Amino acid sequence: MRTSIVIPCFNEEKTIKAVIKDFKDTMPYAEIYVYDNNSTDKTAKIASECGAIVRHEPRQGKGNVVRTMFRDIDADCYIMVDGDNTYPAAFGPVLEKFVLDGQADMAIGDRLSSTYFQENKRPFHNFGNVLVRWLINHLYKAHVNDIMTGARAFSRDFVKSFAIMSKGFEIETEMTIFALENNLKLVEVPIEYRDRPEGSVSKLNTFSDGIKVLLTVIQLFRDTRPMKFFCTLSALLILIGSVFFIPILNAYWETGLVLKIPTLIMVVFIWITAILLAFCGIILSALHKKSRQDFERYLNLLHEDNYM
Q1: Quick check: 281 and 234 in contact, CB under 8 A?
Q2: DSSP characters for 146-196?
Q3: Does domain 3-224 have CATH number 3.40.50.720?
Q4: Could you tell me the CA-to-CA distances from 1 to 69, 78, 106, 228 in Å, in that order?
């Protein structure tokens, strides 16, 4: 059973040495891969000197790095961790056990139930984590505590079946929705979190990356729950049309005349659009069901290949 530690990095020369040493001491049997994402400092050089396998991803963005890591590396368990030394390596063997024992396709290191809110000094980051957690749990009827943690473990089935669409920091959100949508085994374990050491700077932009994460949630909800998404829009349009139509109807009952013909035309257009959206939801829901069936067949084949 092979375990690989995968570390996406961008300008982490202040912390990468400590991360690699921590994992070498904790999991000496695991291969450590550092994927450098166009760093302008000595991240790659330091990682190589520390004994990590260093590779490079020229396309900027964490999602691009994870896509390349998952394609390149073949293992039974993948431990993904950020290179900023905010997660002690002690979480690795805990999450690894869940994956190798077949109890989880993705094991999540839950910061938010532990020390995150005490350690993290960026209030908007705290708010963003809580907002995204509430949104996904509400939309998918789930109970995931930490959506955007950078500490995770994956099975081979998860890694080789995950079609990554994100390019940046929204990758963690996409991973979580992928697991929920495809009924994969998901386990959460509270882990220690510590803020970045002095001199280490976060690459996450609170507002621009936060908006990207929220847009990713909406887009994935549209793609994975088309019936609910389009029928909600349809119902909203029907309601809006009704607000304008009721005064026209009341005037017609009182006078026998349609007094606002342009408004009536607009209402009819809104209702036609609502009907079309509802039909889009029905058709896309059927296509999505077929896609889910194909995915399950692919998983079965992948699972059989793992044991051949």
Answers
A1: yes
A2: -SS-S-EEEEHHHHHH------STTHHHHHHHHHHHTT--EEEEE----PP
A3: no
A4: 18, 11, 17, 41
Nearest to 221, CA basis, from 142, 297, 129: 142
Query: CA separation (Å) from 201 to 3, 11, 46, 165?
Result: 29, 9, 18, 26
Residue boundaries of the structural domains of the chain: 3-224, 226-306
- What gap in Å lies between CA 73 and CA 69, rounded to an integer? 6
For strands 53-56 and 31-36, give the pairing: parallel
The overall pTM is greater than 0.70: yes
pLDDT tens-digit map of 93-119:
999 999 999 999 999 999 888 877 777
Please identify which residue in the block is written with the tokens 């890694």: 159
Residue pLDDT, tens place only, 67-94: 999 999 999 999 999 999 999 999 999 9
Q: What DSSP state is assigned to residue 246?
A: H
How is residue 7 annotated by DSSP? E
Question: Which one, of 35, 49, 48, 41, lies nearest residue 83 by Cα?
Answer: 35
CA 77 to chain CA centroid, Å, is 19
